[in-house]
Amino acid sequence: MFLVLFGGMSVVSFAQEAASEDVISEEDLEKFAKVEVMTSQFVEAKTEELKNMIINNEVIDGGARYNEIKAAWGDEAKEAEIKLTDEERAAYKAIKDFQDSLQQSVVDYKTELIKNDEILGVSIYNKVNGAIKEDPTMKEKLDQKIAELKTKGDSTEGVGK
User: Fold this and answer.
1) Of 53, 157, 56, 47, which is closest to residue 106 (Cα–Cα)?
2) SS3 letters across 59-89
3) How far apart, in whole angstroms, are the C-alpha atoms of residue 110 and residue 119?
4) How far apart are CA 9 and CA 135, in angstroms?
5) DSSP code of residue 153
6) The pLDDT of residue 1
């Protein structure tokens, strides 16, 4: 009887310890929010870079021609119809390659932030990420924290480099 009681108490004790480890502190939430803001700023910087590549491209000569090439891309008849030059093809391909690499660069950037224990750390990321999926109030709290940080502009310098 003693073993059953003692065994039962240790399970309860372990469950309480595990639950206390999963508590999300304000600091954890703040770190997670900062990573989200930094990632958002990185995306904005890369989007601006792409936009400038299109607008300032001397060969393609701006957004209208870029859109024309984009619509015809991969269709030889349409490319001939818009009189796509080899120079324009190379310029468009360079822009497209950059655009295609953006998603992976964002994933890589965010992964590095998450892995960096001074910025966030994988264990905190997993803990907060799990909590916001399970608890709508925690997700709301995170969204408020992100909005505050964006309003303050309080995030790490050097984003997008």
Assistant:
1) 47
2) CCCCHHHHHHHHHHCCCHHHHHHCCCCHHHH
3) 11
4) 28
5) T
6) 44
What single letter denotes the amino acid at residue 17? E
Residue 161 has pLDDT above 50, yes or no: no
| Interatomic CA distance for residues 6 and 121, integer angstroms | 36
The number of beta carbons lying within 10 Å of the beta carbon of residue 124 is: 20
- Ranges of each domain in the chain: 25-67+96-152
pLDDT, tens only, 18-48: 344 578 999 999 999 999 999 999 999 999 9
153 pLDDT band, cuts 50/70/90, is confident
SS3 of 119-149: the string is: CCCHHHHHHHHHHHHHCHHHHHHHHHHHHHH
Residues 6+ away with beta carbon under 8 Å from 138: 24, 128, 131, 132
Q: How far apart are the first and last CA of the chain?
A: 65
Distance of alpha carbon 108 from alpha carbon 161, whole angstroms: 13
